[in-house]
Amino acid sequence: MKAIRRFTVRTVLPTALAAVGDLAANLRWSWHEPTRQLFERMDPERWDELGHDPIALLGGIDPARLDELANDSAFVADAEALRDDLRCYLGEPRWYQSLQNAPERIAYFSPEFGIASAIPQYSGGLGILAGDHLKSASDLGLPLIGVGLFYKAGYFRQAIDRDGWQKESYPVLDPDGLPMQLLRDADGAAALVTLALPGGEAMHAHVWQMTVGRVVLLLLDTDIHENSEALRGVTDRLYGGGGEHRLLQELLLGVGGVRAIKRYVEVSGTPAPEVFHTNEGHAGFLGLERISDLIAQGLSFDEALQVVRAGTLFTTHTPVPAGIDRFDLGLIERYFSTELLRGVDVADVLALGAEDYEGGDSGVFNMAVMGLRLAQRANGVSQLHGEVSRGMFGALWPGFDQADVPITSVTNGVHAPTWTDPLMVGLVHEKLGHFETSAADFAGPAITDGDLWAVRRAMREQLVADARCRVKAAWEEENPGIAAPAWMDSLLDPDVLTIGFARRVPTYKRLTLMLHDEDRLRALLTDPERPVQLVIAGKSHPADDGGKALIQRLVQFASAPELRERIVFLPNYDIAMARLLYPGTDIWLNNPLRPLEACGTSGMKAALNGSLNLSILDGWWNEYYDGENGWAIPTADAAGDGAERDKLEADAMYDLIEHQIAPRFYERDEHGVPRRWVQSIRHTLSTLSPELSADRMVREYVERLYMPAAEAQRIISQEDHYPAKHLSAWKERVRAEWPSVSVAHVESGGVESPQLGDELEVRAYIELANLTPDDVLVEVVHGRARNGDDLVDVQRQRLELVSHDLGQPATFAGTVRLSRSGSFGYTVRVTPRHELLASPAELGLVAVAH
Ligand SMILES: *Cc1c(COP(=O)(O)O)cnc(C)c1O
């Protein structure tokens, strides 16, 4: 029988255990090992059973056991000490508190947050990254507020049927069973966020608050009785629906999210955000709500846009146009021809997302394009992805070289305390006395090769045990009442070279590349001397039958009796599995089609635990591979076609495993330690771990993007937004005049027969129409001239105004030092200049000498 309704009865903790309740309420437990150990002590068996979820543990623990613990003075004292430690963590000054003029608050919007496996509000890398961003923000002391949606069923749970086909189920979460509380107004009523919809309807949402260390996370939830049945389902699942459903989610996230922050700020009496960071385009509507607020204060749309842009950062995550949210123009028009945003004209909204550039589609509204237009600062998530993004969005800045497109990059990182295995932390604690691992721990002699190898084996063993459990549990689920076959108890071997591969299953990630030559793979797996074993996991998007077919092919291959103990597909990849999987693998494999992996973070998490990467030079690996921390699979992008490329890359991968990886792994000294291999582990841990940490990433965001954005938005908002009004009028004037701006003539001299060190004198005559010389930046652009006249290794140098006679072109001049031998080319370009612009390309206007 099925229940028609369910709810969770919260456990009432004995007063002596109040500290335990406080510890469970703050998600710092998701990365704070001592706190997790305290929960484990309460009931080790249930703790394992419940997937290391403190809230479920407190809900499910036997009251008699609670009484026992309440009377255990050592336990109570430990709990209280940990609570004191938490309070200290929450209040003490940290890195951010040493900065001057840093933003008073930063809002971070994301459609998903992966914080702990007990809270499945993520589908993959984007969400986990957002979770790690919050955790590092907390550790560094950032006054950050996260904004997202509360999905009733989160992302799906994956099972694999007997034919190897993926089955999805959507276990419903009970908000009362999660560590979160409703945001309440001063009068105690649940705060209600309301959005006007077409046809006079309205969508309402409650706001849940989670506490992630020092960071508050607000999650909007439409499953409340104030809504119609249909609208209650808006936050049903992560990416649960198509066009309109998705649009409603994004309206709620962006517009509703800003409204939720306003309520939170009111109720808590804490500062409002100065900087808004949108993790991918889904939350882009947040800028429109802020524009609407500024219009209510008397600004025009364009003036308000200047203010919003100044304080907004847009992070793009996808290197493929197909990965971007695009809505039917008519749908957007319908939703914004309402009372949703006071004072905002629908035509202005449509213009922001219009693909009105070469190659664009005039029938769609593009969320990434709007994101870029609403944000003065934008970034990709690895150096290579920055480059790819500058190419992909270059049409928005016509006339500029790709390198000038104002999209920078901040390479992702991962939250080390979450992703470093407790066994590794334990080793560092035992040998060096501290809990937070650092690069230096592995550089010195305190931890020997033998120690490192022992902990690596223990982690592999832990993965093997977990894999056996999962495979048996999956069998029992599919075959109720029939005992799992005995071979499952000898699945995988804790002493065999273990290769891991786990990620979502879109085509570009090439889940089945390893099956390209099945015989060759079979030979690697069953090699009598130097066998290899493979652990694989990943969810296919529910609507992607192609992805499911890949999983099926793999599962079927792995079911052959002679292989099944060496290659296994583990169903339901999630944070809990990942935490054991990365540390337990010796090699983390990644073989995307370059450059389609924007960054990739699983390999970083593996590296933090001493796994070596074997990967295509894509995403983060492209910038961090150094020859010693793993292996690079050469990219065959010059291959004739996709099939040829797959073949070349698969062959290279097999070769590396057979000839380099396996020999090194199995080459042992008299104590059974593979010295050479351990040397690579040590090198990886001592050089890569600081670079790969989310602390490095968040610091970069603060220093390179949040601080300048806060500064820009302060300046532009001064004196009743006078600078914004001025900037808006200036842009309008510059846009109107620009068609008449040109480089009339360029003269040069000073070099007869050019030699290194000579100075080239350049004089440029610029037609300014009705602009003044102060409105423009005139630069010599110079570099090496390559085939034809293309400039490479480009540098720019500003020319200064020499004279400007009325009715004549203005004269600008300067000198360029010839500091490189070889072919030299130059030209002159003019761009708009204003102190409030963050980049000369910002307006997409340029005039170049002909
Ligand atoms: C890290 C992680 C991902 C993302 O991995 P990529 O390498 O970026 O694809 C996905 N799912 C889980 C559970 C993760 O922990």
TrEMBL record:
Report the EC code(s) recorded for this entry: 2.4.1.1
Keywords of this entry: Allosteric enzyme, Carbohydrate metabolism, Glycosyltransferase, Pyridoxal phosphate, Signal, Transferase
Cofactor names from the entry are: pyridoxal 5'-phosphate
Q: Which residues carry this modification: N6-(pyridoxal phosphate)lysine?
A: 605
Q: Which PROSITE patterns match?
A: PHOSPHORYLASE (PS00102)
* Protein source organism: Microcella alkalica
Q: Is Lipid biosynthesis among the key words of this record?
A: no
Q: One Pfam family from the UniProt entry?
A: Phosphorylase
Renumbered to this chain, the signal peptide range is 1-18
* Family to which this protein belongs: Belongs to the glycogen phosphorylase family.
Q: Which reaction does it catalyse?
A: [(1->4)-alpha-D-glucosyl](n) + phosphate = [(1->4)-alpha-D-glucosyl](n-1) + alpha-D-glucose 1-phosphate
Task: Write down what this protein is called.
Answer: glycogen phosphorylase
Q: What does this protein do?
A: Phosphorylase is an important allosteric enzyme in carbohydrate metabolism. Enzymes from different sources differ in their regulatory mechanisms and in their natural substrates. However, all known phosphorylases share catalytic and structural properties.
Domain (DUF3417): give its ranges.
13-118
| Xref: Gene3D superfamilies | Glycogen Phosphorylase B (3.40.50.2000)
Give the GO molecular function terms: glycogen phosphorylase activity; pyridoxal phosphate binding
One GO BP annotation here? Answer: carbohydrate metabolic process
